[in-house]
C-alpha cells in the first residue's frame, strides 16, 4: 500500500493538480482498493467535524494580521529600520533580509507570506548595491522559513490541532529555537562573507541618531507580538481570541503610519480568503485520507515496519528524520505534515518522546523542505520576486542555510531542553 500511496501522490502532484484535491483523490483510491468497508458515506460528516473547530478559526485571523501589515507598507519601514542596525556586519544588507523575516515571522505565521514580503521589498536593492544574487536570494528564502517556527505559527496550530497538543506550549517551544536559527543564519552569512568578501556587497554604517530613530518603526511590531503571545501565555485569551485582537492591533499600527485604505483592506481580505481556503482544503483532504489509511491498516503497517527494524528510540528518530528529509524533496510542506502526523506522532510518543519537542523537530524538517528542490515553495516565491536570473541561483544560495537547519535538527535531538525549557519554566 505504501508504494501505491507514494507513486499516486507524486504522480498527481506532477500533473499540477491542487494539493487538497490530490489528497481527496488518494483517499477515494484507498477506500476503493484497500478498505474493507465503504467509507464515502461518512465523507460529509468528516468534512464537517474536521472544519468545525474553534482552534482552526485562529488561522484566518493570523493570515489577515499578516496581510494587513504587508499591504499597508509596514514591511518597507521595518526593512529600512533593520538595515540601519545590521548592515555593518560582513554580508551587509543580507542580514537585514534575515532580521526582517524574523520580525515578520512573529506576526504572519506563514513562511511563504514572509518570504514573499521580504523578497518584494529587498530584491530591488540587490543589483543596486552589488550583492551576489545567489547568497542574497538564498538568505531571503531561508529567512522566510522562520514564519512557521517563531510564534504565532499556522503550522504549529495545525500540529496542535491534529495531535491534541497544547498550542500555547508549542508556541513557547518554538520561540527559542526560532531565534537561535535566525542567529545561526546570520552567523553563516558572516562566515561566508569573511571567506568570500565579494559575495557580501557593501557594508554600511549609519549615524546613531538614524539608528535610534528607526526603532520607532520596529516598536509597534514588537509590542503587537508581545501582546498576542503574552495574552496566550498568561491565559487571558485563547490563540483564536488573541489572533482577533492582533488583527485590531495591526489595523491600528497601519493607521498610525497612514497605510489604511479601503483598497488595502479589500486586498487583505481577498488574500486571506485565498490562503485560508487553500489551507482548509488541505487539512480536510488530509483528514479524509488519514481516515481511509487507518481503516485500511496503514498506521499499523507503518508501526510494525519501524518496530521490526529492531532499532532503539534514538535510531528510530534518525529514521523518522531521514523519511521527512526525503519526502520533503517531493511533497508540499503542509501536506507532508497533515498526512504523516497521525501515523508518525503516535509511534514517536510511544517511544517516550515529548510531543511538544517532536513538533518543533518536525517544523525544522519542514523548514528544510521549503528551501530544498524540486518542490521547495520558498525557492519559487523568491525566484518569482527576482524576475530575472536562473532558479539554480536561488537553490545554490539557500544550500548553506539548509545545512544549518540540518545542524539544528542534530542540536534538538542532542539537547531536547532547547525546545522544552520555556514551556517548563512558564507552565
UniProtKB/TrEMBL annotation:
Q: Which GO terms describe its cellular component?
A: plasma membrane
One GO MF term, please?
transmembrane transporter activity
Tell me where it mainly resides. Answer: membrane
Q: Where in the cell is it found?
A: Cell inner membrane
**Membrane topology type:** Multi-pass membrane protein
Question: What role does this protein play?
Answer: Part of the tripartite ATP-independent periplasmic (TRAP) transport system.
Q: Which family does it belong to?
A: Belongs to the TRAP transporter large permease family.
**What is the recorded name of this protein?**
TRAP transporter large permease protein
What species does this protein belong to? Cohaesibacter celericrescens
